[in-house]
Amino acid sequence: MKTTRRQFLLTTSAAGLAAALPPIPVVPPRLPAPLRRRAAEDELRVAVIGLRGRGWHHVQAFERLPHVSVTALCDCDCSVLDRRGRAFSDRYGRDALVEADYRVLLDRADIDIVSIATPNHWHALMTMDACLAGKDVYVEKPVTHNLDEGRLLLDVVARSGRLVQCGFQSRSAPAIRRGIEWLREGHLGPVRLARGLCYKPRRSIGRCGGPAAVPDHIDYDLWTGPAPMKPLRRTNLHYDWHWDFDTGNGDLGNQGVHQIDICRWAIDARAMPRSVTSIGGRFGYRDDGRTPNTQVVLYDFAAAPVLFEVRGLPRDRAAQSGNWGDGMDVHGGQRIASIIHCEGGDLIVPTGANDCWAVDRDGRRIESWSRGADHFENFIRAVRTRQEHHLHADVLEGVRSSDLCHLGLISQRLARPGRLPEAVAARPAFGEAVQRMSLHLEANGIESAADALEIGPTLDINQTSDRFIDAPKADSLRLRRDRHPFTYPNHS
Fold first, then answer.
1. What is the pLDDT of residue 177?
2. Rounded Cα gap, residues 489 and 477, in angstroms
3. Which class is domain 5-170?
4. What pLDDT does residue 32 have?
5. Which of 15, 96, 99, 472 is least enclosed, having the fewest CB within 10 Å?
6. How many CB atoms lie within 10 A of CB 204?
7. Section 60-78 average pLDDT
8. pTM for this one?
């Protein structure tokens, strides 16, 4: 592997965002020359990395756009790569370059854009590498796998001059953009609470009882990349990586990151919260998953608190024997949504990116908006104009919303069984949500649910440096250790 891009040691951070990081050796960076504006008829050539699920949607989305073509497909699972390569040829009547190792593609002059739909632990590093190779990037959510990756990523993107669009599709929907604008105009009065819901069925992933065999068609070293190299300890390598802290971020960082982004957007939160507290755990089964399937997180923002709820179990034990998708709990008429509670009513943004509506205090609908848009098209427009402000979900927005997921998970990873502290229980919305969570667990046969809950510490955050205040254990979870050669490009 060529290591030139991975050994750039960058100087001071962009706009001071990485100032709190430990000192690193400094050498002058060697970065690609700025890209010129591109005419509407200029062909833009895309490499899509990660093809098993979401990445195939990336392929189709780019191929629908005029003067944009997917020229390369990349996946370290050769079975997936072969299948997608054949499907691409059949569908589009031409062959795309197929490559298992993304690093080979970065040196190609015939690739302008890299589109990333890999597991979470690869998102930030691949984006940094692509930017330093002179490519613009579309990257799926969450943009980062851990907190300090965000600071490193912002630094690289600013220095490289590349454009990065993050996969928060709701940011491009005219209906949601207008709904949030209408909310900020004051039609519902001050925001009292922004609530995110992720009531999404998550069955047990099973227990394999020991190291599992990795299929021969998967390059496991490359798949693991910057994560710790460990034997596979689950039955299914694919998708269930979401429930391993080394590679995923639970449902808070999987589905929930969309809803938490809308909550943060609605209250116009541009800095970190003053504190975060998480309560929950993994309940209902014993399996190889490690992330919580039941969780309530409180973010204390100056503008308004943000409350997030995760439930992976259905509404009760009877529903466990049926179709969990039809048996999930509902709150405020929603299962997966953002609900912005205001003095004069609520703004409701359900999952999906095409509609939202407002209700008064009696629940009567008073306004509604319905119109979607193409998030990929918005990205391509910015690539052609070289205007970052044209991006609806730029890298800073992506990092800030991803940060909230990491904060909630850090508090939860430090949690211990116990009773809800009085100071936390005194927060009405938080205490009410935790009480409902306890009743939900009892309905699923979890005895003494209130005692079984794991209580995370309240982590205070310095608003200037983004660092935890007097929380060394939390600080230890901010950044993973480098695994050579998959190292951050601004680390030695």
1. 97
2. 20
3. alpha beta
4. 57
5. 472
6. 14
7. 98
8. 0.92
